[in-house]
Design a protein that fits this description.
Helices cover 44% and strands 10% of the residues. It is α/β, with parallel strands linked by helices. α2 packs antiparallel against α3 and α6 packs antiparallel against α7. The mean pLDDT is 95.
């Protein structure tokens, strides 16, 4: 079809609307677009723009309806289909999103980020069509002759060199032309070190559940803590707790990156900590503008930023040994225990009974509560073999409706009765923690292992079997298990992983002894000692600051264990 022509007045409205949209003035943008559509209701490009605005405003049904109408009028527009897919996956309509991404790539195979988004949407619903081909495409993410892949999706390949190459490529594109602002030298007599934590996830989010207690217990005699929020306010208890935990909470959601960088500079932030990396909602451009003298990658992304403007990455000797520093653009800071903080005050609800959770009264319960995006066909086939080897056992999973149907079909095709897969609905975190304790053994994924979920399992006394590889993401569960005294449950191959899980399922006395050690709390003490953790990370911040004040370039920092144990909560 031919796209209707706009009059000069309508063209001015379109220009004004687009400028408002770019500046984040979404109500103004929507108003201009709607004025045009009242006169030209069948203009697909204006529908497309309004759909993007409505998606950002969380007006999901209106956004999806606009995308469908625009796609019907302009079905050959690859970018329209791609944005339609983004709107679908943002609200967990992943099957629809996968269809939209597939349409987009069929129209334009070179579409930047399209392959990664299709891979993610399909993995989310355990639709493993073309999975090997999509992974092979992601494996070429560092090749400048190939379509760009978001670095996040390289975490599904145990290849730190690839992760660095993909990250560098994305940073070069996104931050080209950003000139860092010179920062004035800070005098040593300026008092407390000013730390800013920047995140889009100060809300009901796993990263915030890990971080919030640290924000509360930071030593205010030495540090001033600011939270800069670049994401939405979900009005959750988690959001309110973060707001109350810091000296200053600044909502920067509507800022342009340059504006947020200017805010950080005006506040005199000494160390700006990026809690995002290459996760959804990040704004690396803020750091490219040099918002603080010291800029640090931390917690939210288990890999390198690939950016020369990020000075340090906080890790530990297990997840990132110094011999692997060549795969990171940042200098490595090794905390002696773990890079991951935990909240010891987070308490499970009252433990439910098996029947309340849809579990059988008897029989071994394998639990796999990782996000379904982390699950691949080979791992699921391994889990099905365990079910076949352990009579009466079940596999307990977290999965949406589309994923459930696909997993049941895979089980049936393998000869496993689909009713041996038990699916848990999403529940508030205290209830989720309480029910995890009903399982007998947690089965981890690879190469993107359990991170927050591993801490959750250990918190309630649930042992894990995990597998480690070469990448940061593949080692997180292993490090947490070491701290909890479960180092002998860490494997390094599929065969060893399968053999160990089967051995534990067949040896109730050994498994009971392991669980007993976890449940008495002593084995988990270091993992959940937030005061011990605080001492370590604050020592790291002071070491970074000392180098900066001395005019020394960033360098690797290896922290020794603190001389005394912390005091728990």
């Amino acid at each position: 079809m031919s796209i209707p022509l706009l009059s000069p007045d309508q063209t001015r409205l379109l220009h004004d609307g687009y400028q408002a949209q770019v500046r984040g003035l979404l109500d103004d943008a929507a108003r201009q677009y709607r004025k045009i559509l009242k006169k030209v209701p069948d203009h697909p490009d204006v529908m497309h723009l309004l759909a993007m605005v409505r998606a950002h405003q969380n007006r999901t049904d209106e956004a999806l309806a606009l995308y469908r109408a625009a796609a019907a009028l302009k079905p050959q527009d690859a970018k329209l289909w791609y944005n339609f897919g983004l709107a679908c996956t943002a609200v967990e309509r992943n099957s629809q999103g996968a269809e939209a991404f597939a349409r987009a790539l069929a129209l334009d195979p070179s579409l930047p980020e399209g392959i990664g988004m299709l891979f993610s949407a399909r993995r989310s619903v355990c639709d493993w069509r073309d999975d090997a081909q999509l992974l092979a495409a992601i494996a070429r993410a560092g090749d400048p002759a190939r379509p760009e892949i978001p670095p996040f999706f390289t975490l599904w390949l145990d290849d730190p060199a690839l992760q660095l190459a993909a990250a560098r490529r994305t940073v070069r594109r996104r931050c080209a032309g950003i000139v860092p602002t010179p920062l004035p030298a800070r005098a040593r007599t300026d008092g407390r070190v000013r730390i800013g934590y920047l995140s889009a996830d100060f809300r009901n989010h796993p990263t915030t559940h890990l971080l919030v207690r640290l924000l509360e217990v930071h030593d205010r005699s030495k540090f001033e803590i600011t939270a800069l929020s670049i994401g939405p306010n979900d009005a959750s208890p988690a959001r309110k707790r973060v707001e109350a935990s810091v000296d200053r909470f600044i909502d920067c959601e509507r800022d342009q990156p340059a504006e947020t960088a200017a805010r950080a500079r005006s506040l005199g932030i000494d160390i700006l900590v990026d809690v995002m990396g290459h996760t959804n909602g990040n704004r690396l451009e803020i750091f490219a503008a040099r918002a603080a003298p010291v800029q640090v990658s931390y917690l939210g992304y288990p890999g390198t930023s690939g950016a020369d403007f990020m000075d340090y990455v906080i890790a530990d000797p297990f997840v990132l040994p110094l011999e692997d520093a060549r795969f990171f653009s940042e200098k490595v800071v090794q905390l002696p225990d773990t890079y991951q903080p935990n909240d010891p005050t987070l308490a499970p609800a009252t433990r439910p009974g098996r029947a309340e959770c849809g579990l059988p009264d008897t029989g071994f319960v394998f639990c796999a509560f990782n996000n379904t995006r982390k699950l691949d066909p080979a791992t699921f086939a391994l889990w099905l073999r365990l079910l076949m080897e352990v009579p009466g056992s079940v596999l307990w999973l977290l999965a949406g409706e589309d994923a459930r149907a696909n997993l049941r079909r895979e089980a049936e095709a393998t000869g496993v009765a689909p009713d041996r897969l038990i699916f848990a609905p999403h529940r508030p975190l205290p209830e989720h923690l309480a029910r995890m304790a009903l399982a007998d053994l947690f089965l981890d994924t690879f190469p993107y292992t359990a991170h927050t979920t591993a801490s959750d399992a250990l918190r309630v006394g649930l042992p894990l079997v995990t597998r480690t590889g070469r990448s940061f993401a593949s080692k997180v569960a292993g490090r947490l298990m070491h701290l909890a005294g479960l180092g002998d449950l860490i494997t390094d191959s599929p065969a060893a992983y399968e053999a160990l899980a089967l051995t534990l399922a067949r040896d109730p006395e050994r498994l009971a002894a392991i669980r007993g050690g976890l449940e008495d709390g002593a084995a988990r003490a270091r993992l959940f000692d937030i005061q011990r953790y605080r001492i370590q990370i604050e020592a790291a911040y002071l070491a970074m600051m000392e180098r900066a004040l001395a005019g020394a370039a960033p360098d690797h920092i290896v922290l020794a264990p603190p001389p005394a144990e912390g005091s728990g909560a």
